[in-house]
Every structure is written in C-alpha cells, then in structure tokens.
Design brief:
Elements (H helix, E strand, L loop, with lengths): L39 H6 L9 H16 L6 E2 H11 L1 H4 L6 H11 L5 E2 L1 H13 L2 H7 L6
Antiparallel strand pairs: 1-2
Length: 147
C-alpha cells in the first residue's frame, strides 16, 4: 500500500511540482540503451476491444498503459517513479495543491518508506485522491455540456 489512505499527520513538505535537482538530468531512451517506447495513442489504438470503446473505457485504458509503461517487470512503481509520473502526467490536477494538508499527507506517504513499491490499485487510489481535491476538478464540473 502506498499509504494513500493513512491519516498520519506530516511535518514534511514536498512539492511534486518541484523536481529534485538531481533528477532533472534526462537521458534519451536510445542513449541509455533502451528501446524507444511506442506512443500511448498508438498503443491504445492497437487494442481491438477498445476501437468502439466509450470515452471512459479509453480513459481508463490510457491510465493503465501509462502506468504499465513506467512499471517495473513485476508491474509496480517505486515511490520516486510515482512522483515523477505525477509531475509529468498529472500536473494539471496537482497544481496549486501544495499547501493543502491532505495533499501534503499523500505526498509525505510517498517520501516515507521509499523501499515500498506501488501497485496499480494503489496508483489508481492515489490518482482519485488527488483528483478529488484538485482545483481542476471544479473547473471540469463547471464545463458547459449542452448548447
């Protein structure tokens, strides 16, 4: 478990939007001897069952693909990888949340016990938790849906 459901108060503050300076050096996959990844859109398009899938099905499939592309061979993410994924793929939902106690609690859980890894279920709980507290969710709720 990632500790997303924990209610332990935290004194540690960490901003997911502020990457660790040591982690800002990027090496291309090819330079690191790794194969280039197929873009998520192409991976999604290759799933026959989703060709006529709903927007919601495609959205969840996209989350699963993003997770799987970052997960280790056992299908898990380190807490550092999780933070990185949040920074690069979920910035709109976490922007402006740094001072909220619940956000700090969730992020501090990622700082603690760094040897623990996060499985897909915990990753989804983390995304839902961060989404529910985000300012972007309020914006989405206010989008006009009819003419």
């Amino acid at each position: 478990m990632c500790g997303c459901r924990a209610s332990v108060p935290s004194t540690k503050q960490y901003s997911v939007n502020q990457p660790d300076p040591a982690s800002t050096k990027k090496v291309s996959p090819a330079a690191a001897g790794m194969p280039n990844r197929i873009p998520i859109a192409k991976q999604l398009a290759s799933i026959k069952a989703l060709r006529k899938g709903s927007d919601l099905e495609k959205a969840f499939a996209t989350v699963a693909l993003v997770y799987n592309n970052s997960a280790d061979p056992e299908g898990k993410l380190s807490k550092a990888e999780t933070k990185s994924l949040l920074q690069t793929q979920f910035g709109g939902f976490i922007q402006g949340q740094e001072n909220k106690p619940k956000y700090q609690e969730i992020i501090s859980a990622l700082d603690e016990e760094s040897e623990n890894k996060i499985d897909f279920e915990d990753f989804m709980i983390l995304l839902v938790s961060l989404t529910l507290m985000s300012d972007l969710l309020q914006e989405i709720k206010n989008v006009k849906t009819t003419k």
